[in-house]
Each structure stands twice: as C-alpha cells, then as structure tokens.
Amino acid sequence: MSQDSLPAAQEPDLPAKSIQPGLLALFVAFARMSLAGFGGVLVFARRAIVDQHRWMTAEEFNETFALCHFLPGPNIVNLSMVFGARLRGVAGGIAAFTGLLLPPTLIMTVLAVLYAHFGELEVLRRSLAGISCAAVGLLIAVVFRMMTPLLKKPDAVGLILMLAVFAAIGVLRLPLQAVLLVAIPLSIAVTFVLRRKVAA
Amino acid sequence: MTNESPIWALISTFGLMSLFAVGGAAAAVPEMHRIAVEVHHWMTDKQFADAYAIAQLSPGPNVLIVTLIGYAVAGILGALAATLAMCLPTALLAYCVSRLLNRPSQSRWPGLIQAALVPLSIGLMAASALILAQSTDRSLIALFLTAAVAVLASVSRVNPLWLLLAGGLLGFAGIV
After folding, report:
1. Does residue B121 belong to any structural domain of this protein?
2. What is the interface pTM, i.e. ipTM, of the complex?
3. What is the full per-residue pLDDT of chain A (200 aa) written as tens digits?
4. Do A38 and B38 lie within an 8 Å CB cutoff?
5. Is residue B159 part of a domain?
6. pTM of the model
7. By the CB < 8 Å criterion, does B6 face chain A?
8. Where would one find the signal peptide in this protein (chain B) (predicted)?
C-alpha cells in the first residue's frame, strides 16, 4: 500500500466543481482507478478525483489523505469511504468503497481458483517464484524510500523504534497486537515529549 | 480451533488485524503470515509467498492478498468474508473519525500521531520484507534478483509492474 506513499507535490489548485457526482459515477470512477492501479491505487485516485473530475481541490485531497494515513487499515480503502461520504453522504461512501473493491476482488477470486487448480504446474511455480523475488525487492525499495527522512534528520529515536519493531515482528515473530500495544503509546509519548522540548 | 467455523475464524482474524494495521497492508503482512502459516496452517510458506506475488501483480489495492488467503481457507465465501473483514471495519472507523474531525488541520494530534506511527510502520514493512525474503530467496540468484529490483526501484522511477514481469520472465525461463 505504501508504494503510493505520498500525494504528488502541490500544484496550483484547480477549483473544485460544485456539481455533485451521482452514485453510479462514484462507483465507476473508483472502479476505474482501482483497476488501473497496479501496485498502488493512490496516484490514480488523485488524478481522477482532483485533475479529471475536480470533485476536490488538491488541498482537500491532501487533508483527507492525511487523515486516512494515520488511521489503521488499508489507506486507500479508508480513503474511498471518506471521499465518497464527503461528496454524497453514507450512500456515496458505500458506492466508492464497493467500486474500489468489487472488481479487483472478483479478479482476485478468479486468480485464486486458477491458482488452486494450476498452482502446482512447474512453469507457473517458476514464474511465480521469479515474481515473488521481484515483489520483495520492490518492498525493500519502499522501505528505503520511507527511511530516508529518518536517516537525513537524523531521527535517532525514530530509528531505534523502527529497529525494535522490525526485530520484534520480523525476527522474534511476536504477535502484532502485543508489539503495537507497547510500541504505539511509547512512540506517541516520546514524540510528544520531544516536540514540547523543541517548542520550549 | 476445532469447533470454530473457518468463516468465523477468518472474520475475527482479519477484522481484528485490520485495526492494528498501522501503515496499511504491507505492514500487516508479517501478522498475516504468522496467523495463516504458523498459527492456523492455512497455507504453506511457499503458498503465502505466491499469494503475495499474485496480489502485487494484480490490479487493485494490495490488501487483497486477504482474498487469496480467504479462498485458500474456505473457497469463494471465505474470499469474500476475509476481504470484507479486512476492509470494512477500518473504513467505517475512518468515516466516523472524519465526521468527528471536520477540520483535521486545526488539531495538532493527527500530525503528532502520524509522526509517531511512521517509524513503526517502516519497521513493520521491513519485517514483511524479511519474512517474505526468507521464503522466496532460497538461491543466490534469487537473492541477487531481489537486490537488483530493490536498487532499480530505489534509484529510478520505472513502473513496478515491469519489474514484476521481468521477475516472472526470469522465473519462467528457469533462471531464478
């Protein structure tokens, strides 16, 4: 999900049109951006909502995105619900959510059926093994890209927290809930204290 | 787990997991792996790595790896249950929070919490990479391919899809 980490750089705001999109239009728009979004939907979401349909200004988009980014769960899915609801209320939220998820879920289900039947084929096994290697490489690249600001600052506390979570989950294989119930309050407390120090 | 229906196990597992998925789907991969492979034995290590590869290669949000896990556990109904359980609760939470914070920019808490969560989600994603690498990078050439893709994707803006397809092609040719 973080291939689509941040919205593109600010460009001059296009005025948002005041026309409210229909529910079907919302469904179709989110279905299209979802199906276009190989390896990350956010870029397409931004293009469709801000540039193409002008349902929101770039600033409104960033604000809503920031909100969805700090909440748990798949960001882009959260985003669809919040965007849809901001434009057309609960029904709009559901239309966007369904548009985003229904078509790719159907595709994924078909792929699951195919995998169940043909997953043992030698050719497919080999190809998937190659794709897996590349996919892990992509993930490592995302991690590096996200780490750069911490290294540049350099944010020692952030780096220590990052390494601690990495060790607890990746090496020791501890349950996520247990790790985060300790790490989240700790990280928020440290960030709060450090920011107060800077302000003082 | 013996008396529990697999559908309910999927719903409770992913519903709870989504609420702890700070930093999105990639951050939840280690927990998915732990539950699906180590705790419930729903899939093998190799099947999990395959599912991750398929989810990366397909259109749509990457979180849909849960659709594949759900299908492996309980067929089409399982696929649907896992997808909704992973996506709906946090979407509703996001909706409620967005109603509460009509003007998120006026409060400094969202910014502070987000800043505090960033290192944690990077750590989680790094853990995802390690766990997946342990099941995919079994040979020196596979390790080299992963490293090459990592470098290429870091220094260039090449579309990730091409790198995935290149990996698939190398695998198809029997090189990896």
Report:
1. yes
2. 0.87
3. 334 444 444 444 455 555 678 999 999 999 998 988 765 677 778 888 888 888 888 888 877 877 787 788 888 899 999 999 988 999 999 999 999 999 999 999 999 999 999 988 889 989 999 999 999 999 999 899 888 888 988 889 999 999 999 999 999 999 998 999 999 999 999 999 988 887 77
4. no
5. no
6. 0.83
7. no
8. none
Q: Domain spans of chain A?
A: 2-118, 151-200
Residue B161 lies in a domain: no
Between the CA of residue A95 and those of A88, A121, B50, B97, what are the distances in Å? 9, 39, 31, 19
In b/e form, how buried is each residue of B3-14, taking b as 16+ CB within 10 angstroms? eeebbebbbebb
Maximum distance among all alpha carbons in chain B?
Answer: 56
Joined tokens for residue A111: 């792929």
Domain that residue B12 falls in: 6-136
Answer yes or no: do A109 and B71 touch at CB < 8 A.
yes
Test A105 with B67 for CB contact under 8 angstroms: yes
Residues 47-76 of B with CB under 8 A from A: 47, 49-64, 67-68, 71-72, 76
Chain A CB contacts of B176 below 8 Å: 126, 129-130, 133
Round to whole Å and give the CA distance between A54 and B85.
Answer: 32
For residue B162, tell me if it sits in a domain: no
Domain count, chain B: 1
Q: Residue A38 forms beta bridges with which residues?
A: B59
